[in-house]
Design a protein that fits this description.
alpha/beta; Rossmann fold; five-stranded parallel β-sheet; 5 helices
Length: 141
């Protein structure tokens, strides 16, 4: 007998700060999302070329090796990657402006408001039938 379970939305978190990657992973997995991480744009492109495409990419802009701007340019040039939505995350009050210039689906400013994070992720990654009710768990702040 084969069991078919809908796949949970997968989010690729691209940020050079390991604490941010870990925190976002913990928060989003607590909401029922699957997460993968990359420490820079080059790692993210390698991930995308060797794994199923995520439902959403959370993209930091300022990173070593390959920043978010160069990653997004490469993503938009690759036909197979172009349709994966990106949410820009950045500090310094430039997230909204950068998101517009990069044709991103949305943005979050650092420090992030957790409520905004969840609301915006849910808007871009609707829950599957099995995920219709978010898991009930105690939140740690």
């Amino acid at each position: 007998m084969v069991c078919c379970v809908p796949v949970t939305a997968q989010i690729l978190i691209v940020d050079d700060d390991s604490d941010i990657r870990e925190t976002l992973t913990e928060l989003l997995e607590g909401e029922g999302y699957g997460c993968a991480t990359a420490g820079n744009g080059r790692e993210a492109l390698q991930y995308l070329r060797s794994h199923p495409f995520p439902t959403l990419i959370l993209l930091d802009l300022m990173m070593p090796v390959m920043d978010g701007f160069d990653f997004r340019a490469a993503q938009l040039q690759a036909d197979e990657l172009r349709e994966v939505p990106v949410m820009v995350i950045s500090a310094g009050g430039r997230a909204e402006q950068a998101a517009k210039s990069l044709a991103a689906a949305d943005y979050l400013s650092k420090p992030m408001d957790i409520g905004d994070l969840f609301r915006k992720v849910r808007a871009l990654c609707p829950p599957t039938a099995n995920d219709a009710e978010p898991p009930k768990q105690e939140r740690r702040h």
